[in-house]
Amino acid sequence: MQLDRYDLQILRVLQEDGRISNQDLADRISLSPSPCLRRLRTLEESGLIVGYRAMLDAKKLGLSLMALILISMDQHTPERLANFEAKIIEIPEVLECLLITGQDADYQLKVVVKDMDSYQDLLLNHITRIKGVTGVHSSFVLRRAVDKTAMPI
Predict the structure, then answer these.
(1) Domain count, the chain
(2) Does 111 reside within a domain?
(3) pLDDT digits (tens, 9 = 90+) for 43-76
(4) pTM for this structure?
(5) Which residues span the domain enclosing 18?
(6) Which CATH number goes with the domain that contains 67?
(7) CATH code (residue 34)
(8) 105-135 residue pLDDT tens
(9) Is the dihedral of CA 67, 70, 76, 80 positive or negative?
(10) What is residue 54's three-state secondary structure?
(11) How far apart are the first and last CA of the chain?
């Protein structure tokens, strides 16, 4: 899909404010509402825009502990990895699961929990019980120095 300057402007604005009205979006990018809406629909239908979400404050929800967990697996077969991913997606505390290279680990997880007791329960009763997990290394987030979701376009 070829993106022109209007498409890129629409994407930039939507990354800042996904709830903006079509009229306000059209005004911001200097386009009339009808063509703006057509472009927006095209971007959505193409799959470039994959969804709209509300960003929540974890601390206000009582989820004050964030950890990054490196996971090592015993085997690197497609079946073993698929099983791990199927199990990990069922755990609501897991915000992100990345298959990685360049480490002594196979996966990196980003998790959020209430406190250290909740973390211990998550780790010992859920993550380490997944078949194939042989190693776990945890790091705890002290502060988010950069926290953005916008793609650099």
Answers:
(1) 2
(2) yes
(3) 999 999 999 999 999 999 999 999 999 999 999 9
(4) 0.89
(5) 5-45
(6) 3.30.70.920
(7) 1.10.10.10
(8) 999 999 999 999 999 999 999 999 999 999 9
(9) negative
(10) coil
(11) 14
